[in-house]
Amino acid sequence: MAIPEVSKKEKQLNVESLALGDLTWVNIEPPTERETEYLAQNYPFHPLDLEGCLSRVQRPKIDLYKDYLFLVFHFPVFNKEARVTTSSQLSVFIGEKYLITLHKGELKPLVKLFRECQIDEESRQENLSQGPGYILYRIIDRLVDYCLPILNRIVDNIEEVEDDIFSDRKKGTVKEISMLRRDIISFRRIIWPMRAVIGSLEPRIRRFTKMDLAVYFGDTVDHVDKIWDALDEYKEVIEGLNDTHDSLATNRTNEVMRMLTVIATILLPITVVASLYGMNIPLPFQQSAYSLPFVFLIIAVIIGGMLYFFHRKRLI
Amino acid sequence: MAIPEVSKKEKQLNVESLALGDLTWVNIEPPTERETEYLAQNYPFHPLDLEGCLSRVQRPKIDLYKDYLFLVFHFPVFNKEARVTTSSQLSVFIGEKYLITLHKGELKPLVKLFRECQIDEESRQENLSQGPGYILYRIIDRLVDYCLPILNRIVDNIEEVEDDIFSDRKKGTVKEISMLRRDIISFRRIIWPMRAVIGSLEPRIRRFTKMDLAVYFGDTVDHVDKIWDALDEYKEVIEGLNDTHDSLATNRTNEVMRMLTVIATILLPITVVASLYGMNIPLPFQQSAYSLPFVFLIIAVIIGGMLYFFHRKRLI
Amino acid sequence: MAIPEVSKKEKQLNVESLALGDLTWVNIEPPTERETEYLAQNYPFHPLDLEGCLSRVQRPKIDLYKDYLFLVFHFPVFNKEARVTTSSQLSVFIGEKYLITLHKGELKPLVKLFRECQIDEESRQENLSQGPGYILYRIIDRLVDYCLPILNRIVDNIEEVEDDIFSDRKKGTVKEISMLRRDIISFRRIIWPMRAVIGSLEPRIRRFTKMDLAVYFGDTVDHVDKIWDALDEYKEVIEGLNDTHDSLATNRTNEVMRMLTVIATILLPITVVASLYGMNIPLPFQQSAYSLPFVFLIIAVIIGGMLYFFHRKRLI
Amino acid sequence: MAIPEVSKKEKQLNVESLALGDLTWVNIEPPTERETEYLAQNYPFHPLDLEGCLSRVQRPKIDLYKDYLFLVFHFPVFNKEARVTTSSQLSVFIGEKYLITLHKGELKPLVKLFRECQIDEESRQENLSQGPGYILYRIIDRLVDYCLPILNRIVDNIEEVEDDIFSDRKKGTVKEISMLRRDIISFRRIIWPMRAVIGSLEPRIRRFTKMDLAVYFGDTVDHVDKIWDALDEYKEVIEGLNDTHDSLATNRTNEVMRMLTVIATILLPITVVASLYGMNIPLPFQQSAYSLPFVFLIIAVIIGGMLYFFHRKRLI
Amino acid sequence: MAIPEVSKKEKQLNVESLALGDLTWVNIEPPTERETEYLAQNYPFHPLDLEGCLSRVQRPKIDLYKDYLFLVFHFPVFNKEARVTTSSQLSVFIGEKYLITLHKGELKPLVKLFRECQIDEESRQENLSQGPGYILYRIIDRLVDYCLPILNRIVDNIEEVEDDIFSDRKKGTVKEISMLRRDIISFRRIIWPMRAVIGSLEPRIRRFTKMDLAVYFGDTVDHVDKIWDALDEYKEVIEGLNDTHDSLATNRTNEVMRMLTVIATILLPITVVASLYGMNIPLPFQQSAYSLPFVFLIIAVIIGGMLYFFHRKRLI
Lengths: 316, 316, 316, 316, 316
Description:
The structure is a homopentamer. By secondary structure, chain A is α+β, with helices and mostly antiparallel strands. The first copy, chain A, is 62% helix and 15% strand. Chain A has 11 helices and 6 strands. The first copy, chain A, has helices spanning 7-12, 33-42, 47-54, 108-119, 121-128, 132-145, 147-167, 173-199, 202-205, 214-277, 291-312; strands spanning 15-20, 23-28, 61-64, 68-79, 84-95, 98-103. Chain A has a 6-stranded mixed beta sheet, sandwiched between helices. In chain A, strand 3 and strand 4 form a beta hairpin. In chain A, helix 2 runs antiparallel to helix 3. In chain A, 44% of the residues are buried. The model of chain A has no long low-confidence stretch (mean pLDDT 88). Chains C and D meet through helix 8, helix 10 and helix 11 of C and helix 7 and helix 10 of D.
């Protein structure tokens, strides 16, 4: 199969390409129906795959064909404004003499790698000289490493939440825990299917590369597994922190309740005795000079008795 | 085996049929005992299968026979009035020259597809020319895609609930969470057994189709897996939101409790001192011109002391 | 091996038997040590199996021997008085020319089937003519179907509980949830090991039957799986309802707390001001004709200020 | 390999032995370094195994060697004083002509079995005549059956806790639930690894026995599985009971809160109105003969209005 | 391959070495880029592995090469100051004639073993004479045993927390539970991947050792499994304790609430009646000598009635 000329027409399309020897790397950013039509005309791709490049309901997968592989990856991208981790799709067609990447431009490391190869002759040589399989490894490796800062941000947030929980009664802690939890859940959902795809990738792209990539992909799989392990741990940690927050809140309710009981125990008896002596009826000791000390004595006896009783019952 | 004539008698039964070449698609909507009896007379189907078309306790499954396959699917259908997702059964008999679908008419995409093939010659050509296996693929693909709007509705509801939880103390949030949770649970239960059945369908219906459907069914399986992944995520999210709601409610209880403590701390001492000075006994400073300022001074000292004490204990 | 004569001696034992051709169905209800001794004398059964028929610590299982199979099943039985689902053991010996069932008489469908075959010649012909494997299928199928009403009762109870939770503050809801949960747990524990046994039964009893029972047992396995799926769903639903109940209770606590705060906010200031004006000391405006309106004005200002403050803090 | 003479020296060691024909059962109770040294001198055992007999960090396991097997079992033992289930280690060396058991004497059924064989000729004949594999089966079978009373005690405790939760506000219920839960957790941890070991034991000791023990060990494995199933169920039940306890406690808090609100609703308005009429300022109706009925009327109107308002809001 | 001379240059690097016969053990503590460069020059190691020795995102793993193995282990290290368990990486290159260990010096048993072999001729003989595989076993065995004191510390902490929960209302219990839980989670995450690596290690290093290490590694795997089982149990126990703490806190809230209700029930009626008799209006019995007993009678009747009513409603 001959690799088609893409010089002029590409200008109008979101299609850019790089070539070294007989190997071409075509980057489509972002793909629309016009681009997939262009691919349909120039490459022997299955219509369902071209549809899949545009669809929102894809899952990471490897589709094997006689002449090419169709790969779908989802990588996490952190949206700084909305403060959530979302997934960004990377579709790849890999053939003997071409690698076609389709994405929305949110995957910075991929954009940067393509730029480097465009500008820098040496970088192009380094990445493209080993066949399309090696470029794919370079892309995936960079995108997997790109997950680490997102992961570190989660660790930082967890530690911050932990401090908030114990040190202070900050207002937004519950919201922070909830958002962090949701973020971890959605991150996990992105990594989960990726593990299987990257894990089974190496033997399938072996035919598209000149060097043995087993060690390289093994290393990448280890990184993905490490990320997965970390997310698993963070999930357990954040669930634990949620429980801890609730336990502390319950404890605080208890503290406040006990304080209210103490206030009631001390102040109500005074009011009661004072009200009794405020009645407009004849009362004992009413006119005596010792009436006030007498009243305070009664009050003190009642308060003392109640405090002693509650203390013995371990309620305050 | 000859395909039986179904022209007249069908009129009285809930049976409609389409034919192209020697292939017939029989649609029974809804099936009753009369229709299964009719099938028993005209096709070599196992009595247990015919029973299964009417039964309510079926599970998605593939039964293999020498001449035909019997398939049971359950697809989710959203009941707008009751606001719950229920399952609707689709039973399929697939033979070399026929496809028989039995359902209650709730599966709109199937009803629509059958109508299209009835009315539109081109559509009939497109769907029926590749053998009964291809029609089956078309039906399943449409029904799986039909799950997506139901899924999107769940996402919308989750986001609404999330906003409700944090922004306002809306009354019905707990009920909303509970219904959403139940809906997700029941949706999951419908998708779960479907994955296995659709996943193992392609090699078994290979003999009933002219084209290679592996890629097509692979795509459908991906969609089902995507739905499953999404439901898994939503389940975790809604459980997290439930926890968040409870944590916020506990926090609010704490806030209100602290406020009550503050009120008690400020108002009770005033009442106490006022009651004491309301006693009908001789009291110090009683007739002095400075008695009122003196009372207010005592009150201010008590309140100040209590606020200081509680603040140091971090209770208010 | 000759089938022993069981006519006279059986009269004294809890042993009844049916015969058709050279096939005998022996029903022992309930089994005691005397009956297992009788079996030991007449059949080549392993002593551990005979012990197992009487033991309470059996698990559903299939024991394979050269001449016979020993099967243990546990089926759920609903105890209406105690309102719990318990398991009832059915032990079966199946040989080439005999089927021996041992149970306590709680499994109504089995008792009924045996009666039918005793009384009705036609029924006996239908059930016994296909060999002991077919009778076994008939028994198991009926007993599995017998689970459905128990399952439906659980669904009804769940719906009732759901209504109770949201509509009213009924007293017994927590107890109802707890009992339902326990019932589902114990039902699940009965079904769980049954799945494996019934699923692997067909190939092992093939030698004891004249017809191919694969489809029949496949259907029964589907029913058991359906029951399992349903119980799994109910378990999740009831756990969700428990959470919902707690969330609603927490909400109600909040409502009541806020109401108490409102009461305190409105009534306490009145008491405070009134107490101050009840003091037996010279007070401003005391003898003025406008003293009462003045007092009410102070009260109104205090209440208004507090309500405004709390409302801004979103506490009431 | 010759079986060593153990007559004299054993006296000083914690070693006892039984012999029948060329088979010896050596019982070491409790094992110390002196006993393992003795074994090291007389038997070809691996040093790690001898260490393992004394170590506290063993796990149930089967170690296969050319001449012998080394087995470690952990059986549950109920400590009546501390009211917890702990594990007690049984180490076994089994060779062609010997069985060596090492334990701390806490496993009563094993101690009893050894005593029986010492005293009673018949019992020794019964247990030792079938080779070391059969003695091992006898020991394990008795020790597994010994778990049942511990299990029954747990069931009794669960039922007691269940009654406590619903019938009364007993003080120690939470502690009881907590201890029961911990007991079940630790019991499960003992049974869990035991299942795998006993399940894979029979084929490995086949060479050390004269009779076919497959059925016997199969029966024992069933018992262990039954115990595991039961513990699984109890774990779910006790977790459910914990939730139920908390729900009931939350409900009770609600009840008490509502009662406080009712008290406040009824008593505070009286105090308020009374305080107002206690003010030392000119008040309307003050000197009228109908002032008291008038005051009560105002109070009744306020209380009635509040009760009606709260009732409509479904708060009381 | 010849083992390189490492005498002089090592002095400046963090590299130490031991030799016995043609076997060299090189210990690098801590590794930096200079040390990995040194290894790259002298050994045929893959660049990715050398990178992995310095990286923080490694996972325990075994990488197989023709001439050597690259192993990564993570062992738990308890940080006494921060009171948390963290993981410390040990990277190992094992070849026919060398063993290279790279670590940060936090793994005390490894540091100690290397020192012993440096100083003590006998110890060097014992550890190095059996080939590099045996040294590796010695290192791993000591490091695994080093986990046990960390585990015991967790057990001690759990028991302390358990006592705190039941005996007293200590302030820091929630924090203690939270930290313990997090510690167990992170310990588990360290042990989890280690199990797989150590479990599959023996057959892979067989070629690097003179003696059969299967029994030895089997023993080590048992220890790791035992640690895992223990951590699993502790995780369940600490979750149970968290629930117990919350249940107890809820109970205490109930107790305090009931106490407040009792106080309100006893004191408020007195205040109410006293306020009524404090009104400046004509009251019945006002001037009677029996007015005070009459007032107390009314109060007693009201309090008695309320206590009786609440007691019947089981609220106090």
